[in-house]
């Protein structure tokens, strides 16, 4: 296993705004807005993107993790299948 992440699936822009902004979850999940998702455009974001491209997303690096990716994807699909028919909680 490569790691574990809490995941929230939001089905509409209105709900996304409620979850991310009103409840402050963006800061919680994105390292106080220091990750690439919510970082303000500027030198810091440019450096992060360059680091990602050189160290994490190079063709050689991506190829080296492909087997792990396939295994984790299989686990995810199996997990979703095992939840079929169960209730989904919607925040409104």
From TrEMBL:
<protein>
    <submittedName>
        <fullName>Uncharacterized protein</fullName>
    </submittedName>
</protein>
């Amino acid at each position: 296993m490569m790691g574990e992440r809490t995941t929230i699936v939001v089905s509409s822009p209105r709900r996304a705004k409620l979850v991310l902004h009103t409840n402050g979850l963006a800061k919680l999940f994105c390292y106080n807005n220091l990750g690439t998702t919510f970082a303000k455009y500027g030198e810091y974001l440019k450096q992060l993107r360059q680091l990602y491209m050189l160290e994490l997303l190079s063709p050689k690096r991506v190829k080296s993790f492909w087997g792990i990716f396939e295994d984790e994807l299989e686990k995810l699909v199996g997990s979703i299948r095992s939840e079929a028919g169960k209730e989904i909680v919607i925040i409104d």
